[in-house]
């Protein structure tokens, strides 16, 4: 009985260790992919980097409904943001990866210098908190969940009056 229990515990430890080591080996790759998306893609406008880590079509969960977004549409969205906020930065405050999921807590900042979603330029320096979850398959992002503080962001731009 005692031998069986020891073998069972040993099996759990060995198998658990094998699973953890494969998960950990994937972790740096996904962290690097997410970091490159923000540093090179968003912050520097090098949208060609997206092709390395984003699938041709991504299921994007934002606000109240998911929808499919193409790699080209995502790239154009980044260029639109960078046009309106030329000094745009998205800083990764925290990044956690487990298996094929990455979770990021982010801060967006920039100066509103051109038209953005119908809002005339304000010259206002703005910031916004964001949280994103990414699901990867074969090293490419296939699903994205985003939650951000649009209300606070739009108040900073004067689109929505602050109280």
Quick structural gist:
The protein is of the alpha+beta class and 163 residues long. It is built from 4 helices and 6 strands, in the order ααββαββββα.
Word description of this protein:
There is one protein chain. The model is unreliable at 1-24 (pLDDT under 50). By secondary structure, the chain is of the alpha+beta class. It has 4 helices and 6 strands; from the N terminus they run H-H-E-E-H-E-E-E-E-H. The N and C termini lie far apart (70 Å). The protein is globular. A 6-stranded mixed sheet has the order 2-1-6-5-4-3.
Characteristic terms for this protein:
42% helix; alpha+beta; disordered N terminus; single chain; 163 residues; Nuclear Transport Factor 2, Chain: A; six-stranded mixed sheet
Q: If you compute it from the alpha carbons, what radius of gyration comes out, rounded to the nearest whole angstrom? A: 20 Å
CATH topology: Nuclear Transport Factor 2, Chain: A
Q: How are the strands of the largest sheet arranged?
A: 2-1-6-5-4-3
Shape descriptor = globular
Strand content: 35-45%
Distance between the termini: 70 Å
Q: Provide the succession of SSEs.
A: HHEEHEEEEH
Pick out the low-confidence regions: 1-24
């Amino acid at each position: 009985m005692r031998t069986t229990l020891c073998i069972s515990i040993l099996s759990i430890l060995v198998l658990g260790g094998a699973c953890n080591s494969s998960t950990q080996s994937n972790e740096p790759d996904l962290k690097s992919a997410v970091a490159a998306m923000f540093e090179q893609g968003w912050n520097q406008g090098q949208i060609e980097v997206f092709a390395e880590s984003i699938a041709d079509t991504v299921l994007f969960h934002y606000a109240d409904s998911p929808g499919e977004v193409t790699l080209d549409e995502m790239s154009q969205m980044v260029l639109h943001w960078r046009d309106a906020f030329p000094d745009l930065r998205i800083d990764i405050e925290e990044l956690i990866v487990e298996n094929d999921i990455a979770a990021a807590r982010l801060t967006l900042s920039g100066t509103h210098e051109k038209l953005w979603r119908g809002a005339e330029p304000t010259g206002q320096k703005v910031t916004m908190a964001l949280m994103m979850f990414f699901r990867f398959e074969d090293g490419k992002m296939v699903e994205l969940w985003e939650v951000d503080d649009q209300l606070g962001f739009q108040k900073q731009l004067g689109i929505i009056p602050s109280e």
